Amino acid sequence: MSTAQLKTKPLYTVEEYLRMEQASEVRHEYLDGEIFEMAGESIPHGDITTNIVAELRTQLRGTPCRTLSKDTKVQSGWLPRPRRMMKGLFSYPDVVIVCGTPRTHEEYKDILLNPTVIIEVLSESTELFDRTEKFRRYCTHLETLTDYLLVAQNQPLIDGYHKTDAGRWEWSSVEGLESEINLASINCRLQLADVYDRVEFPIVADDDETGEETQYLES
Fold first, then answer.
1. pTM of the predicted model, to two decimals?
2. What is the pLDDT averaged over residues 141-168?
3. Assigned CATH class of 41-72+94-218
């Protein structure tokens, strides 16, 4: 996901943001009063997201779980009736899995309350936020969330965070096109070769051997 800050001042209440977002043709995220416009995605970002959706949708066919697109807005941390509140996160994850009946806000039906798995494809501008504050909000406010995946664009690498039955978050990482990551909570596996299908990775090569600083390897 790639975002560009729309405004820092004035700050907006949650209610103001939700009303504006309903009328907007462009998606925006919200964080504690600030509104951020969603920027366009790169081709590798789009390829990776599409590949993940295709793989998970196939594996989840006939199960209680479903794959939702990046246009699904997820709420993290605010009261049911926001009024003049300026606290909370509203985000558009790249991929969302919800199991059972999707629960939405009583007034704003486009807001999902019970995601099971959230997947973000990292970009240079948003990686730090995705790894830190966004993850903290997800862990704190999304009781149904069991897995959070961070997928690199520039190399075949996925970091996974899984919530145990004891409520603790455990980290694991898989790297290389021959690897796979297991999502036991939804009984799915993602082969990195499938996740990165058609994606080219930059390779820094020795100038003496190739005469060029950068080559590209297609998965």
1. 0.86
2. 96
3. alpha beta
